[in-house]
Write a structure and sequence with these properties.
D-Maltodextrin-Binding Protein, domain 2; alpha/beta; elongated; 2 domains; single chain; about 260 residues
């Protein structure tokens, strides 16, 4: 009885794995890599998910996932670096990439097809240490000016939800942080990991502990490539289910990231 139970569990696990991680069809391969290589956009402006060192070397959770995508599809990968999410979305119009890692947003979904999220991270505000701002409720008021990375997930979200505060946009997160420092603006918004890194270096700034949004990071491809989208959706569920995403988070020490629930 015990042996039959063990075999049944093992068989179920194998079936589950085969469903989640099946090999891509020829149609999926063609849609993922029209040129024969999957060009993967890596946004190193999101410090929680990717970094680029002084030599141009990319690393991080999304880089690991991109490499795993290459292994599981058997297709060669080319990493295409970008310094901001807004530049990734703009580049879809020039056919610069085939697969990307971006936060899910309804505005982006007009041109992109998203998987379910693979990780969830947070968006937080940083303010000046002596500012009379102690919660996110204090932010959306007349006269509050917020520096932000143009067309980031949090720019798109805050553009829809803020009623009184004003947004002032820079090309990427480092430039938004510099704008905050030099302009006298009351706040800067960004991914929590980047905001934490900033306040560790700037004693005149502090972070509002409460997050203003939950950022659902997903994989995506240009709209219309249905076979690619279907495969990426299975791939994302597979790397969540088999622990790959959790291991990548742990390996890179990203405390402000959690594996997204299964779709």
């Amino acid at each position: 009885m015990q042996r039959r139970t063990f075999l049944g569990v093992a068989a179920a696990a194998l079936v589950s794995r085969s469903v989640l991680a099946q090999d891509p069809t020829s149609a999926a391969k063609s849609a993922l890599a029209p040129s024969g290589r999957i060009r993967v956009a890596i946004n190193f402006g999101n410090a929680a998910l990717a970094l680029r060192d002084a030599n141009g070397q990319l690393s991080g959770i999304t880089v690991d996932i991109a490499q795993e995508l290459g292994k599981r599809t058997g297709l060669p990968i080319t990493m295409v670096p970008f310094e901001a999410a807004g530049k990734v979305t703009a580049a879809v119009k020039t056919d610069a990439w085939d697969v990307a890692f971006l936060a899910i947003d309804p505005e982006r979904a007009k041109e992109l097809t998203f998987t379910a999220p693979y990780v969830v991270i947070n968006g937080n505000y940083v303010v000046r240490k002596d500012a009379p701002i102690n919660s996110i409720a204090d932010i959306d008021r007349d006269g509050v000016r917020i520096a932000i990375s143009r067309n980031s997930a949090y720019d798109l979200y805050l553009s829809r939800t803020l009623k009184h505060a004003q947004l002032f946009r820079a090309d990427n997160t480092p430039k938004a942080l510099e704008l905050f420092k030099t302009s006298g603006y009351e706040a800067v918004a960004g991914v929590k990991t980047a905001m934490e890194q900033f306040i560790r270096k700037d004693p005149g700034a502090r972070m509002i502990p409460e997050s203003f949004m939950e950022i659902r990071q997903a994989m995506c491809n240009p709209a219309g490539r249905d076979a690619a989208a279907a495969y990426l959706s299975r791939f994302v569920e597979s790397i969540k289910a088999d622990g790959f995403v959790a291991r990548a988070i742990a390996q890179h020490g990203v405390v402000d990231a959690s594996v997204a629930p299964s779709a």
